[in-house]
Design brief:
- The chain is mainly alpha-helical.
- Helices cover 60% and strands 0% of the residues.
- It is built from eight helices and no strands.
- It starts with 6 loop residues before the first helix and ends in a 6-residue tail after the last helix.
Amino acid sequence: MTSGLGLRQLCDWAAFADKKMDDTLWAKLQPVFSDFGLLTFTGIMTRVCVDYLGMPEEKVSWAKQYEEEMAEKVIEQILKEGNFGAKAEKYGERLFSDPNSSNRIASFVKVLGDACREHWPPCEKHAILMPVAPFVLLERYMIQRRKGERPKLNLKKKYQQAAYDQKLYKELKPFEVE
């Protein structure tokens, strides 16, 4: 959920679907994907595999009912954002693009709160510390930054980049029960 989807995961799905998927298995899996809100997401990912990874269409003929435009957006995003095996610096990447948040500001508040509880454990036990926790984490970041342990974080740039990500998440409808 927080690290994104890459070419490796897409290839894993393509290999699985190519070996195992047929109309019978799809008929069994479709209600499961629907119950978990992953039906549209799975259909679009499968369409990407057919259109861009050479998966035989006859194995997953149902995938063609999903939007070609969405498949194109997904593959473009994967190719644009992917690290292709190299170490990628994703520090602060999800601040504004939490898929469960309604907008970028709500995402920032949620992710910041989660980070405070995760990286400053006293917040978990003592909620009264939450208002000062972001400042504690900011101070820690500034110290680590001066030591060269953290990259420069451009919040404005992250905010702008997240607009497209959030729009794509909404269109993929992950975890939305249909």
